[in-house]
Amino acid sequence: MHNTYIARQAIFNAKLETIGYELFFRDSIENKFPEVDQDIASSKLIIQNHIQGDIHTLCMGKLAFINFTESNLRHKFPLMFDKDLIVIELQGHNKPSENLVKIVRYYHQNGYKIALKDYDLALHWEVLFPYINIVKVNIEKINTKRLHPAVAKMKTFNIRILAEHVETKNQQQTLAEVGFNYFQGYFYHQPEMITGQTLTTLKTMMIRLLSETSHTSLNFEKISQIISHDVNLTIGLLKMVNNVSTGVSVEIKSLKQAATYLGEGKLRQFIAILALSNLTSDQADEVCKQSLITGRMMQTLSTKNNFTSVQELAFITGLLSSIDVILSMPVAEILKTMPLAKPIEKALIANDGVLGELLNLTTSFIADNNEDIQALIATHGLSNEIIQQEFLSACKWCQALELSS
Known about the structure:
Hypothetical protein af1432
């Protein structure tokens, strides 16, 4: 039986809040969903073993957008999932056949949410409008000015409209004015840069905190001094101490004592969550989550084979991997304010060196650029199974942080 590999891409609403993830399943490096015509039983087993068990973790409690062919739908694969957890994406249909209409009506009547993928403005799709919840539009292929009549018609059916391949925040805002409700692709493309933007005092402080976690040994004195400059950071640190104290009465007399009490591991965790959440206060928290997942994946992968030489630098590099998106500034400009080790700078700016290869491998997998990483996987003696396992592990770790924070 073939293995399956899963990647995901976030979907946002107009407030840049994550409402779900599109999941990408493949049984090989060809990025194809396992077909069911020749071996239905085996395909069902693949779904049960590799998808169902991890779908809640993969999607962090959000909706899972899953592509189903007409064959998948006919064999009732979506019924293997809770109707409240998934959105059925109609894939591989050039036009709605009479049979497809019946199938879509069936899932609609059973309470499943349905999305029409790759909508091309053709009138023949309107027969499905009474039964679907979301229409997905590839804005690279469709002139959005031609959408106005279709948008008006969709609204009569209470259909939400999702834009795919959105590359900038400005583009997202323009699409919202057209009538789009959801957006996909923004954080997996080149971010919009605002050259010359200055950092606020708070963001500068957060970056200093993140910088401190790049050192092999933490300087508790310096970290406590930075934290002492902000009352919210101080409160957060003390709450963290209270959360980890196991029934033992702890009398904290200084912030340095509080930081030391946490120990290096938990203090690094505290700094990562606090700093990234503050930096992303005016952006979607998805960026923070992805940075944490990237950092965790890099940290665990750095214990394997050729990557052990960059083990001490892996976590902080992953945490900073989306810093240009977070701050809407070129990464080279941001790094001028951070006293980071040279290998970290080279990795973040140009994916240079062993650390850069680890960063490229991790971020490419998360962004579903699977075809770009096979050479790296082979070069460093890894496998698709290992990468997938560490991705799931990092998702679980990130979800645990959310629950405990």
